[in-house]
Amino acid sequence: MSPSGASGAALDAADPLARYRDRFVGAPGVGAYLDGNSLGRPLTASVERIGAFLTDEWGGRLIRGWDEGWLDLPLSIGDELGRVALGAAPGQVAIGDSTTVLLYKLVRAALDARPGRTEIVIDRDNFPTDRYVVEGIAADRGLTIRWVETKPDEGVTPELLELGPDTALILFSSVAYRSGWIADVPAVTALAHAAGALAVWDLSHSTGVVPTQLDAWGVDLATGCGYKYLNGGPGAPAFLYVRRELQGALRQPIQGWLGSAAPFEMGQGYTAAAGIRGMLSGTPPIVGMLAMRDMIALIDEVGLDAVRAKSVALTEYAIGLCDELLPEARLASPRDSVRRGGHITIDHPRFAELMPLLWERGVIPDFRRPDGIRLGLSPLSTSFAEVELAIRTIRELL
Ligand SMILES: *Cc1c(COP(=O)(O)O)cnc(C)c1O
């Protein structure tokens, strides 16, 4: 397809995935929602599922629900997510806590598994919470942070890494939250392993949109958000992945009763549950994990490769239109679709002023300091017409 020549409507008419947009709850007055990478839209199936849960399960089963399946949900939804979107065999993924808390658990566990090593490697442009968690742990433990300086329009590459016998772990994002750069996860992970370090990945901006093979890529530990491309809703719990071979050796730092071997014995002293359950801490956020289940099922129905193909077509179209209509703006994302995730960022000194005006007109992109408009294109809920409307509206306002 000719990216900038075609109208959004024509591309939608030819898009085999266009019909899935009807599965999402409509937003009156919103002409273009381009922030599905920050907060995915709800599925109508989730409205029904959560309503039924409140009436039948919570309301009807009451406390019996815990014995009748709720306690299994963090692991069974984790397994579904692992199969559909992460390339992870069962028993390695669990849902619970926020990404921030899971990062803390994973980084602490990884450090303890590499005693004597004093260095954590992370990039300067990683998401703030990732950096803050690492800074806090490094200060507590007297460790060194080795900052990787990435090019702002790109992200982490193997050439930028200096790892050695002091490196305990690396922590990078599989897709950079600003530029959208897709890291070469297997190559970077292999470098960490060659240095004897563990590889921790933040998958927040790739899960549900970029095909991922954690088992095959040799990833040790990973986490990511449930409310972005997984449409779990505001504050939905995150997920974590712990490679099976590491599960016996790793100890996570937030020892709670529901990660213990026998929670209902109420006994003295903590013994971790075997397997991935030992990564849990307190009572699992059951209501919060219901909606993502519907999105995981939808991605399963469509197939992640088809989702990715539409994702590439959407970002390609957006870049073509920006080149044509916003020549004074600067693309701050990779032009090569192989290295580009589901969103793009365009920079212009006046974009901050434009944001309230865009919102008034029902055009909702994201803004990232200092002057980037980020267009997050969630393939199953975003149309080509929305992309066109947003970029034409930015043109008009400029
Ligand atoms: C969105 C995002 C987070 C958010 O973490 P929360 O604990 O859910 O607030 C963390 N890391 C990355 C890379 C993100 O994109």
Can you walk through the features of this model?
This protein is of the alpha/beta class and 398 residues long. The chain folds into two domains: 8-44 and 303-397, Aspartate Aminotransferase, domain 1, CATH 3.90.1150; 69-300, Type I PLP-dependent aspartate aminotransferase-like (Major domain) (Aspartate Aminotransferase, domain 2). 37% of the residues lie in helices and 13% in strands. It is built from 13 helices and 13 strands. The protein has helices at 8-13, 44-61, 64-67, 73-86, 99-112, 128-141, 185-194, 214-217, 244-247, 290-302, 304-325, 351-360, 384-397; strands spanning 32-33, 93-95, 119-123, 144-148, 167-173, 198-202, 221-224, 239-242, 330-331, 343-347, 363-364, 366-368, 372-376. A seven-stranded mixed β-sheet has the order 2-8-7-6-5-3-4, with helices on both faces. α5 packs parallel to α6. The longest helix is centred in the C-terminal third of the chain and has 22 residues, at 304-325. The protein is globular, with a radius of gyration of 21 Å. Pyridoxal-5'-phosphate is lined by residues 98-100, 127, 129-130, 173, 177, 202, 204-205, 225, 238.
